[in-house]
Every structure is written in structure tokens, then in C-alpha cells.
What we know:
Elements: H1 6-12, H2 21-36, E1 42-46, E2 49-53, H3 55-61, H4 63-68, E3 74-76, H5 84-95, H6 107-116, H7 128-138, H8 144-153, H9 160-163, H10 166-183, H11 206-213, H12 217-222, H13 227-239, H14 244-260, H15 264-270, H16 280-294, H17 307-319, H18 324-336, H19 360-378, H20 385-401, H21 409-417, H22 428-440, H23 446-452, H24 463-471, H25 477-506, H26 514-518, H27 543-554, H28 560-602, H29 608-617, E4 622-624, E5 629-631, H30 632-664
Parallel strand pairs: 1-3
Antiparallel strand pairs: 1-2, 4-5
Amino acid sequence: MEAASPKDSSVASSPFSSPNISALLKIKILSWSQETGLPASVRVRLGDRIFCLHKFPLSSKSGYFNRKLNDSTEVELPQDFPGGLGTFEKITLLVYGSSTLIDPFNVAALRCAAEFLEMTEEYCSGNLCERFDLYLNQVVLQNWDDTLIVLQKCQTLVPWAEDLLIVSRCIESLAFMACMEILDPERRRDRPVLTLEALASSAWNCESVKEFVSQDLWVKDLITLPFGFFKRIIGSLRRQGMKEKYVSPMIVFYTNRWVISAKMRQFCQNSGEINCDTSAEDEVSTILHGILHLLPMGEKSSRIIPVGFYFAVLSKSLELDLRSEIRSKLQDQIASLLPLAHVDDFILPKSSAESVSFSIELATMESIISTYVSFDLDMNHTPSMSNSVVAELWDVYLANIVLDPKLGPKRFMELIEAVPLSYRQSHDNLYRALSTFLQAHPDASQEEKTTVCKYLNCQKLSQEVCVEAVQNDLMPLRLIVQALFIQQLNTHQAFKECSDSFRYAHCGELSRSLSSSRCPYSKSQNLGESPYGEEAEPGRRPLSALLQKDHAIQGSDMPEREYESTSFRIQTLEQELMSLKRSLQCQNISKRAELTSNKVQNVKPFGLENRSMSRRKNPLGQKTGCIGSVTFATQRKYASRLMKIFRRITLIGSRKTRKKSGATGPRTRPF
């Protein structure tokens, strides 16, 4: 618990010089007896203390003593006398003529005591009640610090301070001065008013929030008040027209000080309206319930209050096991603002829990995710950037909690499925969560690894993560082959882009012509060597050679160790695949040999029987081939059509020659 601030300590005791009131009162009583010659015949009892006083000063200014002293000279004040023994001594001293004891630290108690004793204008002009009201209105309520002191002193004067409207006047005055502080008509501020925009860019941290609040002392003063007073100040600020972006930060800072920072014991000591017999959990529950009513909910708070604040409050409610309706309200609010959260805001399971799978923190986070998904489905949203952000946050969160060896594959798959796969535009964080899970479960079988990794789509992995997946020995072979295939496609695409850019960058004017654009891969152009090298097709070259070429092109982009490990891993997998291919080829060859030997045994000598069989298969007038069969009838039909075409061509040619010969002379005859 942090030490009390200087202002908090000043409230407990007045900084003004406080003389010995008891000694001054004795002097005043003696001087009055000497001046009037009357003895102190009235005995007033308050607790264990007895005061010997004069009847005339008391009955002339107090209606209470005027009634009590008509029948007796002894008066016993109640134990709950406003302000207690010290306040009564000051009132008595003022009755005897002293006028230098009023200050912001005692004026509230003196006003309540004067009201109890009925020191009004009815009994004396310029009586104590009027004097205290003038001091409150003209001195205290015109100053921020004095008003704050009086309001804090009113905690022990309930219900007298409420009935006399001292609390209400102080609250309205503080709210008005706070509005003037924000408006700043006299331009006295050097820096802007505190808002929560600076805190939204990072995760919630109680200590950083404390340092942030210390920039504005008036905000720090307001959050030191009890919750009952603070709630009424917030209502007054809103009634007087303060904008919500200035009101909500005060609520957030108040919650951070008294609830999130675990200061409930100090709060219980300073607060006068909370029953001290109730437990700390009930007190926090009451405060949180009131705070949730003060805070704006839904979309109104999306640009005002960081979602990390709601996570911090929810974590505190789980720690104190508060009522389920409070947690449910917080979860719904977090779900509506989840795309704006940071992964550090998420609630991690406590280290003391036996297993992460059954922790209440993980169940709460899973409930928040399901609520967000249900909200999204109800609104019929298509996959958006917000959904992608939520999926990435959830995958990073899973990577932080799957280190528990007691978290089984089935439970882990349920957590992955909490966010639909369609939300994940990138699978990098999902791969890291899967890799962390496999590291925490080294004894997992190949079948379990394959089942868990079925959610991973290698096409949605980045280049660096895809290379990392190829190098990861914990990943199942099927996933590694998929990653290799995607890597090979990406490499081919990169080679093609490099080749195209090389051509466009180094070709001459002739190479920019239309013919070169139509034949970009023509060897007749002077474009240098092919990027694949050695006239080999890119699809037939091994992936290790392609990566070597890629490494030569990229230069120092890929570290040497990563390149060597990746190349070694790829070569090993290629050897395994080649050996598997050879074994399959050997099996096919052996099967073909068996089929051939069976056919040879079934073949008979060439003779009439074979000829008859061939005739049965191929009837007369039919020829067979590898593509199809053609009959003599169709050949005859095609031949007749061709002859007709040739005859027409011949007739057309003869007609032309006749016309030409007729034009040359009458004696020529056609052929």
C-alpha cells in the first residue's frame, strides 16, 4: 500500500496553529465569572467529560439549552453529538466570545453542532448557524482545496451534513470548478486535459496509469473521495454538460486506484458509508456494480475507454469471486471491444492452478471469444479485418498457455476451433501455437500430431514461417511436404519475377519491340542466361537446387545457418521421397513381369485357330489401330467424296482454259 499523499495527510489534521482549546475555555469561564460575579452553575456531560458553564450564554444562544435548563441545571449530550468532544469545546468557546477558530477543517462539524444545539437567528442575531453558512458560501465553496477538505470531513458527519446540504453544495461546487478547469476561459493550463487516448495504444498497467494521473492534480483529488461522493460528482459533471471523453477517464482512474490496485483495506478505512462488517468481496462487488452503471457501455465507450481496463476489472472480479452477473456484463462489454484489445490484456491462468484446461481464467476467455463470434454471426458479418485481428490475438494467447503438459490434444483442438478458420487470414500465429504445443508434448504420436496440425494451411504462411516449418522436426511429414510444395511454388514465382525484371531492365531497344514481348523466353534474344540454368526445366529440378539458386539471387537476405539447415532438411526429404518412388517403381515392374509371364504361358502356336480368333475379333472389312477402327465402307465413302471434289476442280479448270482460248482466236479448240 502506497503512502498517503500530502493532501490526504492534511485532511486528518489542520495545518493552522491549534491552541489548547481546553485551556482557553477555562480562561474564558473564569473571566466571565469575574466580570459578572455569577458562578458556573450548569453542568454539561459529554461522554466522560463534565463541563461547568454559565446558564445565560448557553440559553441565550441555543434553543436546545434553553429548553433543557428550564427544568434542571444538568444536561447530558448524546454520544453521537456532531463532531464529538472537540467540536463542543469550540462551540462553547465561541459562545463565550471567541471568534478565531473557524477554518475549512472544522467548519462542517461546527455547522452541524450548531444545528443540533439550535443556534439560529431566532435566539440571537448573527448566531453561529448564520456565521458558519456565510463562511461556507463565501470562503470555502470558492476554493477548490477548501471545498475538497470540507467534503472529506463530511464523511463522519452523516446524516447532519446531508440534511444541511453541505455535501450537496460541495459536490456542485467541485463539479462546476472542474468544468471551468477543462474550459479554461483564462488560458491558465499549460497542457491538455487528461484523456485515455494515450493509454489505448498499449496494454493496461496500473503503475503507468498512476503516473499518468499525477499530471492533473484536480483529477487526483477527485479520485481520493469515497465512492458515494465520487458517484454524485460524476452525475453533477454530466448534468453540467461535461463531455464524456473527460468524464469517463475519472471513472477509470478511480477504479484503478481503489479496485484494480488492491487498495480495498484503505478504502474501507476512509469510506464512511460502506458497512465495515461486510467482507472485502462484497465491498468490491458493490463498487464494481456502481462503476459499471457509471461507465458508458457498448459502442459509446469504444473510443473513450481502453478494453484493457475492462480486462483488468474482470481479472479482479475473478480473483475475488464476485457475482456472476457482474462478470457476465464485463464479458459482454469486452466482446464488443475485442478487436481493439492487446494480447497482453488477456487473462492468463494463474500459476497455482493444477491444470490450464480447467482454470476459470481460460474458461472466461473462451466465453468471451464465443460471445464475440455469436455477436458477429447475429449481425451477419462477412470476414473482415476485425475478425482477422481477433483470430491473431487468440492464436498468440494459445501460444502462451499451451506450455502446460496437461493440456491434451482434444482440449487444444477445441480451443483452436473457438475461432472459425475463416477468420484467419494468416496462419503464422497458429503455427507458433502448434509448434509450442508439440514442444510441450514430445511424446505425442504421429497420428496425434497430424490430427492437431490439420487446421494449418501452408498457403497462408509467410515466407519466413514456411521455411521455419520445413526445418521443424516436430511437425508431421505431411505438413512438411505441403510446406515444401508451397515453398517450391513461391520459389518458381520469385524466379519468374526476377527473370522478367532482368529482361525488362537489361534488354535493348530491339528487345522492347512487339516480337520480343510476344516471345519473352526466346533464346534468340540477347537476355543472358536462363535463371534456371543448364537448360533444365524448373519443374524437374530438385527443390534444393532451386533454393540454392534463390539464395544466390537473394544474397544476404537469408542467414547462412538457416539456409544450410533448410537445404539439408530438403535434401533429406528428397532422398526419402526418391527411395519411396524407386520402391513403387520396382513393385510396378515386378507386377508387369508377372502379367507378361502369364500371357506367354497362355499363347498357342500360330495356326488356323489363331486366325479364326483374330477374325472373330476383327471381322472382315475392318482395320484396327491404336486410335480407333476404320471400315472399308467408310474408306470407299471418303474416296468417292474426294473424287467428286477433284472432278469439280478439273471442270472449273477446263472452263477457264476454254474462255482464255476463245479470247485469243476463233481457230483454237478446247483440249
